[in-house]
Amino acid sequence: MIALKEWAVVCKALEEGRQTILLRKGGIMEYREGFELKHDKFLLFPTFEHQSKDSIKQDYYEKFDELILENNTAKEYVDLSLFGNVIDVKEIKDKDILKKLYTYHIWNERYVDFRMNYNPTKPMSVLFLRIYKIKEPVKVNIKKEWAGCKSWINMDGDISSTMINKSFKQLHDENLLKPVVDDLTFNRLVNEINGVIK
User: Fold this and answer.
1) What's this model's pTM, rounded to 2 decimal places?
2) What are the domain boundaries of the chain?
3) pLDDT tens readout for residues 129-140
4) What angle do CA 85, 44, 50 make, to 5 degrees?
5) pLDDT digits (tens, 9 = 90+) for 85-108
6) In sequence order, which ranges of 71-149 are alpha helices (DSSP H)?
7) CATH architecture of residue range(s) 2-193
C-alpha cells in the first residue's frame, strides 16, 4: 500500500475537515519533475520534517502546539489513521488564483508564495481530497529510507495485510473507512473551490 507524506498539522486539518485540498510542488528529491500524482488512493503519513509554525495561519497555532506536545519524543513508529481519495487535480501557475484559495487551507500567504516560487517552471498541483478516518489506525515502524523530501512511500509488507489485501471499495463497503465530512459539505466545498479556480 502507498502512503503520501504530509505535515502532521496538515493531516490534522484534513482530519478535522478544515481543508479538503492539498497544494503540492514536490520535494527536493522531485525537483526536476515536480510533484507527480502517481496514486489516487493512499494512506496519509504524518511527518514533522520541515513542518513550521511560521508557515501556517495563526488560527491553527494551537493545533500545531498540541501535536508537538503529543510527539515530543523521538518515536520509532507512526499511527496511520487517514485514507485519502483524490477526486480531482488542477494545475495552477497563476499566483492570484492561489491567493483566492486562501480560506480553504491552513498555510499562510507567505508560505504559499514561497512554495509557488520554488521550482518556478512547475505548476502548483491542487489535489481535491476526500479524506476518510480508518476505523482501526495502523501502527507502523518508521524506516530510515522513508526520511527526506519525498512525497510517496511504498509500505507493502509494512502494514496490516487486512489493509493491503482490500480494495478501496471493500474498505468502504465494510465500514472500515468513515468520511470526515458528509457528502453535502464535501460537494459544496468542491463546487466553491472549482468556482475559484475557473
Assistant:
1) 0.87
2) 2-193
3) 999 999 888 888
4) 130
5) 999 999 999 999 999 999 999 999
6) 95-100, 109-117
7) Roll (2.30)
